[in-house]
Specification:
Helices cover 74% and strands 1% of the residues. With 503 residues, it is mainly α. It has a two-stranded antiparallel sheet.
Length: 503
């Protein structure tokens, strides 16, 4: 029943010029808005949602999901070309994407990201269609202990995702966790670490922090290198990647897609957690992990596949349970309710047409993103032709506008500048910046659910071991932390035996 309804809906959308026009407009707008630092997918949907108020439900869903899907990839464009993540989930895209631009491989980097994003989205959609009831049922088992364990797992995996010392990355990540505690306590409404500064009462907004760390910090670093005569202007290089090279990375795309779909199906986990775990996992499995962070295609493909696949995952609790998987689907749910559509458990039985609208819209939006994304690659890489001095001014202005546009608050600009200096200092000291940003993302999730769990258990830590899912995640974290220590200890003992045998 649902399959035939889906095919009929898909054929109706694909043969209607008006629907195709909406897909095209939504895809282009999503690509552009997603690429603008400071305008996330959530903001893009919120900005353009009023446009759909006069539409019928079907066209409205098609238009909004087209914006949704294309903005997910659009966030990687500025991350790759300018080291300015358009969305928080694009932080890991710039880790290997921007070095590829510096090496004259901007076009290839965008192609890798686009293909991985499309395939990840397709796999996420397939799993949404086939496994929605199963994944939704699994996601309903998550409570505060499970959310805390997932956040802890993300922080542990993040320690292995950075180049250099795992200990240093962990310490930097914990600093980010502490920064996430600045502001009013959600549970007690008390101020914490604000130093009586009114601007800090609401904490650090994530977008200005990201723009400062990765945008302004990069400008300051480039200016320092320019004075030393080391700044070089990268060439564009070839744009398209051989098909054989893309096919050879199918395992990377598949792993990233499964991780993205699974994490995306967990309410409140979000794509940021998915991409961090996908990147860290791929780095651990790679035969050349030392190349991650220097322009390794796998380090670009894995998070992009996970990012796009998490969209399908986040739609699982929305459709099956009526619970938004993240802030983006919360905005999407609000738009659906405006049009008289209420997702929920009985949706599959009562309104299969609505479900088929969602499926068909995601599929067509992915195709539109691929088509227009390919067409925009040649235009996008022209950014690398701009003279470095002019580019620095352009990015600096973008940083200020992006930070201010979040809440129309100059305090966010000051935060952006402060973290730009932090990013510059970290670069000069060869400290990883990414764990700081993700610690800020995961810290509030960990703290809030940790405290809520302890309140439920009246202070007993056993609640995390009594629930199978949280206990399994904590066990994995312990193994991941202990494994390098045991490996180092075993290597030291082996060297001692060899030295004793040599005597």
């Amino acid at each position: 029943m649902l399959l035939s309804t889906f095919l009929d809906t898909l054929a109706g959308f694909a043969t209607d010029p008006a629907m195709l026009g909406l897909i095209a407009i939504g895809a282009v707008l999503g690509l552009i808005l997603g690429a603008v630092p400071g305008i996330s997918s959530t903001m893009a949907l919120a900005i353009l949602m009023p446009v759909t108020f006069g539409m019928e439900p079907g066209p409205a869903i098609l238009f909004l999901i087209s914006i949704f899907m294309s903005s997910v990839y659009g966030g990687s464009v500025s991350a790759i070309l300018m080291k300015l993540p358009g969305t928080p989930a694009s932080i890991f895209t710039q880790v290997d994407g921007f070095p590829m631009t510096q090496q004259g491989k901007a076009g290839q980097a965008l192609t890798y990201a686009l293909v991985a994003s499309t395939i990840g989205g397709m796999i996420g959609l397939a799993m949404l269609v086939v496994l929605a009831p199963v994944l939704a049922g699994f996601a309903t088992n998550f409570r505060s202990p499970e959310f805390a364990a997932v956040a802890l797992f993300g922080i542990v995996m993040l320690s292995f995702a950075s180049n250099g010392s795992t200990l240093v990355a962990t310490v930097v990540g914990l600093i980010g966790v502490m920064l996430g505690m600045v502001g009013f306590d959600n549970l007690t409404d008390a101020q914490r670490m604000t130093m009586d500064v009114p601007a800090l009462q609401s904490g650090f907004n994530l977008i200005p922090v990201i723009i400062g760390l990765f945008g302004l910090g990069e400008i300051l670093q480039n200016l320092a290198e320019f004075r030393q005569g080391t700044s070089a202007r990268p060439s564009i290089g070839r744009i398209f990647v051989p098909v054989s090279d893309l096919v050879s990375r199918w395992k990377v795309m598949l792993r990233g897609s499964f991780i993205g779909t699974f994490i995306g199906a967990i309410p409140a986990a979000g794509s940021a957690v998915a991409v961090s775990i996908a990147y860290a996992q791929e780095r651990r499995l790679s035969k050349e992990p030392e190349k991650f962070g220097t322009g390794h295609p796998d380090g670009l493909v894995a998070p992009e596949a996970a990012n796009s696949a998490s969209v399908g995952g986040s739609l699982v609790p929305l459709i099956a349970l009526g619970v938004p998987g993240d802030t983006i689907t919360a905005v999407l749910m609000g738009a659906l309710m405006v049009h008289g559509l209420t997702p929920g458990p009985l949706l599959f039985a009562k309104d299969p047409t609505f479900v088929s609208w969602i499926y068909a819209s995601v599929l067509l939006a992915l195709v539109a993103t691929l088509v227009f994304g390919i067409g925009m690659i040649r235009v996008s890489v022209l950014v690398t032709k701009i003279p470095p001095q002019l580019m620095h001014v352009f990015i600096a202005v973008f940083c200020v506008i992006g930070a201010f546009a979040i809440r129309n608050d100059m305090n966010d600009v000051y935060v952006m500048v402060a973290f730009g200096v932090v990013g510059f200092v970290f670069s000069r000291l060869s400290l990883p910046v990414t764990p700081l940003a993700f610690g800020l993302i995961l810290g509030p999730i960990l703290e809030e659910n940790l405290r809520r769990s302890l309140m439920i258990s009246r202070g007993s830590w056993s609640i995390f071991l009594e629930r199978p899912i949280s206990a399994a995640l904590i066990a994995i974290c312990v193994v991941l932390v202990a494994l390098p220590l045991f490996s180092a200890l075993a290597a030291r003992l082996r060297l001692r035996r060899q030295a004793a045998g040599a005597r």
